[in-house]
Design a protein that fits this description.
There is one protein chain. This protein is an alpha/beta fold and 364 residues long. It is 45% helix and 20% strand. It contains 13 helices and 13 strands. β3, α2 and β4 form a beta-alpha-beta unit. The longest helix is centred in the middle third of the chain and has 20 residues. It is globular. The structure holds glycine. Glycine binds next to loops.
Amino acid sequence: MLYELNVNLDNRSYPIKIGYDLLMEAGKILFKEGLKGNCLVIADNNTSIFYDELRSSLDSNNINSTLTVVDSGENSKSLAQLKKLYSHCIKAKLDRQSFIIALGGGVIGDLAGYVSATYLRGIDFIQIPTSLLAMVDSAVGGKTGVNLDEGKNLVGSFHQPKLVLSDLKTLKSLPNREFIAGMAEVIKYGIIYDKNLFSRIEESFNEITAKNENSSLLAEIIGRCCEIKAEIVSKDEKENDLRAILNFGHTVGHAIENKSGYSSSMIHGEAISIGMVFAAEVSCTCFDLSMDDVNRIKKILTNVGLPICYKSLGWNELKEVINIDKKTVNGKAHFVLASKIGDVSIGHVVDDEILENTWNKINE
Ligand code: GLY
């Protein structure tokens, strides 16, 4: 094992284990955590390639598994897909002692998590994230849910996993663009919580993004992000206040994704990268962030290969979507702003004119 930590939530606490070739040990680890009986593994058509290895490890520990594969992509986070998955739970004879394994990225984690939160009023589930984004963000903290036609994640539940198992080997087959997009969330943790993490990424981004086999540096960086998220979630599981700092860059980031039709022209981490540059510039104009820190943020995002502007989208188009985001209060967007790298605060309402000027400035 390269890195281990715990999410502390009273009787819902759970371990996060990060290592190389962990799928081979998954059965033994699950058995030790007291998980036995039948399980349903939910994967998509990219991540189902990991099932054979997982299954043999589960088999050797007397855990009987069934695989179900959904189409990859955001469209699978739908009510129609949920209905199919509940039928698969019944076919796989899952009872209240059974559990579900999410084997995939954020979409699979959210979907499988919500099935397990609701099937038989809730059964156990395990997160086996296979993308960088899922390892550092969506697999930790218990947010689960599906989309409605009207918007993303509008139906969901907080349901913590029993265990998160991150096998760095799965990142080898992740498309490089997806890996780099995950780096946006990694950099975010540095900005919102840990200036040392930020400096470490600045110093060693080449080594981190090389995805070297058995990389203890990559495990350490992913582990540190999970520690930060675990600490935040332990203090504010249901996002009453502190957890909202995780949304740094997400107000504009989500609006960009929405305006690009959640298409491959702009994937989540790329949109968040632009959203973070926007939030940093606003933080400099009307809060305490120095221009030097704004430039460091832009530089590291550029160095890892992330976009920092989006010239083809006008402010008026973005504004429409920002104003219907579920994080607005009384029709006003509330921004997370930074006072310095490593420190942010929530609930900032910013003048429309400043927002518009900032958008125009970053896209000059
Ligand atoms: N992805 C943000 C959160 O889990 O709260």
